[in-house]
């Protein structure tokens, strides 16, 4: 654990699985109430590290608020354990629109899972091996990570200010990665806790398979705003290290998505017919048509979501056609 700013502490949880990004825990310790930004997975080791951090800093759980940037399992998994000990949880109520979020559809209930598989072109009839593999793997994921869970929280919306001793944090919208993701901006000291909006090393997923939501467009517009509004800030993401050059990282992510859009547009032009999201994604990302193994099934579903987001973005820009038959969405140049 290290003190990265006056009375702001960071602990990082690393994982042996290279497919799991390290998690940064942040705790602002103040007289009276203290503030934690997000939690982590509902793993025993994660709880030991998080609770060890709270207790080492002498913070009472009953005097602890937990601000949730967005409702993903690696950010909310330990919320119930903290609430049982007396902590309060704050979150943007827009995050309860779980239907918009791919992760909640696969880690929620079977009906949502089947519907989302059908959306991208995976059905028990047409692609039985892939369908059965995903259904089986989700059951295993339940056992390892737990189902997506609901929890009580204090509604906290963009535009509000949260005061903790010497710090005043503005709640700011960072829509795109999820429908209602928010960050905490300390204007006086130039600090921004940005959740998963921007990070080094990888391109954050825009995880939606819902029509006409326009999340990728929202995401790119938000990144464009970040380059100007927070150019001089110390930006603290929940994964990997602090952002040293926000313009560079924002441009990298935006160009990454635009490059994929161009590749997918070319795939549709070459095919000339209607293609499912999965078929476009398989070709765009160089994946096999067959079922993934368990280690790669999450990345497989993420690829479908990224592909859907890119195609939906191009549809909104008038670059591709969209058609729906029996719950399956098809795309054409």
TrEMBL record:
Record domain Metallo-beta-lactamase: where: 22-239
Stated name of the protein: Glyoxylase-like metal-dependent hydrolase (Beta-lactamase superfamily II)
Record's keyword terms, sorted: Hydrolase
InterPro entries, per database record: Metallo-B-lactamas, RibonucZ/Hydroxyglut_hydro, Sec-metab_biosynth-thioest
GO molecular function: hydrolase activity
Keyword hit for Hydrolase: yes
Record Pfam families: Lactamase_B
Lineage: Bacteria, Bacillati, Bacillota, Clostridia, Lachnospirales
Domain of life: Bacteria
């Amino acid at each position: 654990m290290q003190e990265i700013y006056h009375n702001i502490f960071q602990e990082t949880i690393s994982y042996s699985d290279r497919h799991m990004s390290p998690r940064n825990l942040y705790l602002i310790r103040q007289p009276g109430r203290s503030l934690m930004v997000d939690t982590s997975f509902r793993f025993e080791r994660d709880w030991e590290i998080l609770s060890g951090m709270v207790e080492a800093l002498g913070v009472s759980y009953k005097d602890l608020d937990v601000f949730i940037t967005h409702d993903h399992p690696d950010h909310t998994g330990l919320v119930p354990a903290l609430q049982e000990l007396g902590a309060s949880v704050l979150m943007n109520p827009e995050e309860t629109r779980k239907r918009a979020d791919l992760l909640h559809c696969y880690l929620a209930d079977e009906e949502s899972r089947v519907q989302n598989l059908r959306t991208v072109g995976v059905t028990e009839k047409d692609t039985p091996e892939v369908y059965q593999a995903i259904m089986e793997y989700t059951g295993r994921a339940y056992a390892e990570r737990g189902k997506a869970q609901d929890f009580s929280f204090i509604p906290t919306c963009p535009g509000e200010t949260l005061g903790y001793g010497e710090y005043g944090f503005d709640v700011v919208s960072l829509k795109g990665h999820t429908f209602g993701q928010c960050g905490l901006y300390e204007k006086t000291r130039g600090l921004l806790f940005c959740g998963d909006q921007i990070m080094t090393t990888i391109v954050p997923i825009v995880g939606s398979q819902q029509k006409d939501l326009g999340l990728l467009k929202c995401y790119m517009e938000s990144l464009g705003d970040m380059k100007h509004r927070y150019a001089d800030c110390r930006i603290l993401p929940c994964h990997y290290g602090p952002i040293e050059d926000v313009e560079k990282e924002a441009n990298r992510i935006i160009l990454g998505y635009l490059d994929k859009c161009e590749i997918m547009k070319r795939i549709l032009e070459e095919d000339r017919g209607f293609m499912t999201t999965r078929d476009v994604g398989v070709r765009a990302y160089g994946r096999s048509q067959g079922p993934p193994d368990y280690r790669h099934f999450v990345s497989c579903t993420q690829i479908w979501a990224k592909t859907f987001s890119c195609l939906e973005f191009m549809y909104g820009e008038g670059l591709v056609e969209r058609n729906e038959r029996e719950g399956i969405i098809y795309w054409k140049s």
